[in-house]
Design a protein that fits this description.
The chain is of the alpha+beta class and 147 residues long. The protein has a single domain, classed as Glutaredoxin (3-Layer(aba) Sandwich). It is built from four helices and five strands; from the N terminus they run H-E-H-E-H-E-E-E-H. Strands 2-1-3 form a three-stranded mixed β-sheet. Strands 4-5 form a two-stranded antiparallel sheet. Helix 2 links the parallel strand 1 and strand 2. The termini are far apart.
């Protein structure tokens, strides 16, 4: 009887890791506006992270032309090359760079924009040490004075 119970559980787990369509990401221009802060995002385009990507898009949209976003899917040659150039190794679901830096001091704490934001990790991947508010604080400082 136990053998038959495992099949539905296995099927549900496989379905959760399926190839559901990626979220519609905000369009990105190949040319950065003058004075824009460069934001590079490298990510695994898998279901557990897609909600975080949607939240990132909402936050980044509030900065309009003050930020220029480039996205790299880890599972593409461009994403692999970017990750290698940045020294990313191991299982990294998400890494964010603001003007080339990934580590910042926010409210007296050193944070690194890697993995899931706090409170949004999964059972298999732990939360990072950052929050969306931390990212907003860094972006606010980086875009201060830009039009």
């Amino acid at each position: 009887m136990k053998k038959y119970f495992l099949w539905p559980v296995l099927i549900l787990l496989l379905a959760a890791c399926g190839t559901t369509a990626a979220p519609a990401l905000a369009p990105q221009s190949p040319v950065a506006p003058a004075g824009a802060v460069q934001v590079d995002i490298v990510y695994l385009n898998h279901p557990p992270l897609r909600g975080v990507l949607a939240d990132l898009d909402k936050l980044l949209a509030t900065y309009g032309q003050r930020v220029h976003v480039t996205r790299y899917d880890f599972d593409t040659p461009q994403g692999e090359a970017f990750a290698t150039a940045k020294g990313l190794t191991g299982h990294n679901p998400l890494a964010i760079f603001v003007d080339g830096a990934q580590q910042f001091t926010v409210n007296g704490h050193t944070i690194r924009f890697a993995s899931f934001p706090q409170g949004q990790g999964t059972g298999m991947v732990a939360d990072g040490e950052w929050t969306m508010q931390d990212l907003q604080t860094v972006l606010d400082g980086a875009t201060k004075g830009s039009s």
